Amino acid sequence: MARFNPNRREKSEFSEKMVDLRRVARVMAGGRRFTFRATLVIGDKKGRVGVGIGKGTHTALAMEKAIRSAKKNMMKVPLTQTYSIPFEIEAKYGAARVRMRPIAKGRGLVAGGAVRSVLELAGITDTSAKIISHTKNKISNARAAIEALKKLRNIK
């Protein structure tokens, strides 16, 4: 007879990739209090992707909250038959600016940083992406990539 194990997580249909994990300090009367902030990208590599942020006293708790947040913010991306994007797009989120364009079949995914994580987990290949802004903020770059993919959803 199989028993319920609360520590064992069931296998999810989504792949996950950690974009950022930070230790955040708050100064209190007795000293510093440390918490963790996790930023995760989840996707099924078939056109669904989401970015989530979670904060908690332990890294595992922060990651669990980030996964829940990413599932809430999940979106569907329209893909071509070659698993690329249909046309060139550019988007801005905060200080981050991202440009994506389809490239010839077989060239692969040409992107860096958080934008690459978002595109990989969305299942997009044969696409070139460039972070145009000078910000190194991974959360803003990931959200700018999501904003760009939302523009694909609006214009069909």
TrEMBL record:
GO cellular component: cytoplasm; ribonucleoprotein complex; ribosome
Swiss-Prot/TrEMBL GO biological process terms: translation
Domain S5 DRBM per the UniProt entry, residue ranges: 14-77
Ribosomal protein found in the keyword field: yes
Superkingdom of the source species: Bacteria
Any GO molecular function: structural constituent of ribosome
Keyword annotations of the record: Ribonucleoprotein, Ribosomal protein
Keyword Ribonucleoprotein: yes
Pfam families: Ribosomal_S5 (PF00333), Ribosomal_S5_C (PF03719)
SUPFAM superfamilies with a match to the protein in the record: dsRNA-binding domain-like (SSF54768), Ribosomal protein S5 domain 2-like (SSF54211)
Family: Belongs to the universal ribosomal protein uS5 family.
Record-given protein name: Small ribosomal subunit protein uS5
Organism field: Candidatus Giovannonibacteria bacterium GW2011_GWA2_45_21
